[in-house]
Amino acid sequence: MSRPDRIRAFGVVGAGQMGAGIAQVAAASGLSVVLTDREARFLERAMAGIDKSLTRLLEKGTITGDAKGATLSRIRTSEALDALASCDFVVEAVNESLDLKLSIFQGLDRVCRPDATLASNTSSLSITRLGAATKRPGRVIGMHFMNPVPVMQLVEIVPGQSTTAETTEETRALAVKLGKTPVVSQDLPGFISNRVLMPLINEAVFALYEGVGTREDIDTVLTLGMRHPMGPLRLADFIGLDTCLAIMEVLRDGFGDPKYRPCPLLRRMVDAGHLGRKSGRGFYDYTEGAKA
Questions:
Q1: How far is CA 156 from the centre of its chain?
Q2: Which ranges constitute the DSSP H helices of 140-192?
Q3: pLDDT level of residue 224 (50, 70, 90 thresholds)
Q4: Does domain 195-279 correspond to CATH entry 1.10.1040.10?
């Protein structure tokens, strides 16, 4: 039996774009939020981003000034993982590195109450392995938000091998409380979303690599021909080419199937540091003054 009402204090590890977005929607839903990261500058940047996001909603008339102020007042920041000790539910939202995530889950297992649920925002890594690194595998689950979190409605709920039915139902109920639509995926590489999306992006990169079409033509086929809101190459830039490569490698290694081999062009661009929007250059140029 789920107990969604027991979740009042909500923690987030990682103050990047995803972590900040998760903190924002949790605070907007009325939860008390603790946002942590290893450096104050990341936390300051995250709070500035949350303020900017809420301001846009205010200008659109989606929220009131009082609602904006209340949301911000519910978020406190800390550079210490110990600050999450009183949280009922914690979401990890750091880079897609299994070693890093394992280390964080071991740390959370030490500082959080035994009845606290530990969730990962991972987009492809094994929830079962993360749970096995703790003494509470039944209370470890995947909670994969989409980017940008305040806008996108979907959340993938991913139970690991040892995750209890109660934890799964509680996490589903929490997603609904946050204004999201939950779907449940098995704990297999890429889950549902990236098992479908990343091969599509990778194949688009192969089409560019092999000269089938220009970047603009490939993206236009998907936007105008298949009604996708964004072409696959521009979407890869938005996600981050390093993230796309990492997920393709998880799919290839997890399934042992050569159909998931990353395109050499994708690997070469990551090696060059052309990671997409976050680096200023990917398949498109995002530097100041670049042609739209």
A1: 10
A2: 165-177
A3: very high
A4: yes
Q: Say how far apart CA 230 and CA 221 lie, in whole Å.
A: 10
Domain 4-184 adopts which CATH fold? Rossmann fold (3.40.50)
> Token pair of 179, please?
């204004």
| Tokens 């703790």, residue located | 134
Q: pLDDT tens digits, residue range 232-281?
A: 999 999 999 999 999 999 999 999 999 999 999 999 999 999 999 999 99
Length of the chain: 292
- Identify the burial level of 65 via C-beta atoms within 10 angstroms of its C-beta, where 0-12 means exposed, 13-18 middle and 19 or more buried: exposed
Give all strands of the β-sheet with 117-120 in edge-to-edge order: 75-78, 32-36, 9-13, 89-92, 117-120, 140-145, 154-159, 181-184
- The span from the CA of 174 to the CA of 225, in Å, is 37
Query: How far lies 59's CA from each of 64, 67, 68, in Å?
Result: 9, 13, 11
Q: What angle do CA 154, 262, 215 make, to 5 degrees?
A: 75
Please report the sign of the dihedral spanned by the C-alpha atoms of residue 263, residue 264, residue 266, residue 267.
positive
Q: Residue 5: pLDDT band by 50, 70, 90 thresholds?
A: confident
Report pTM.
0.91
Question: Which of the residues are catalytic?
Answer: 123, 144, 156, 194
* 3-state SS class at 165: helix
Q: Where are the domains of the chain?
A: 4-184, 195-279
- Cα angle 258-260-215, degrees, rounded to a multiple of 5: 125
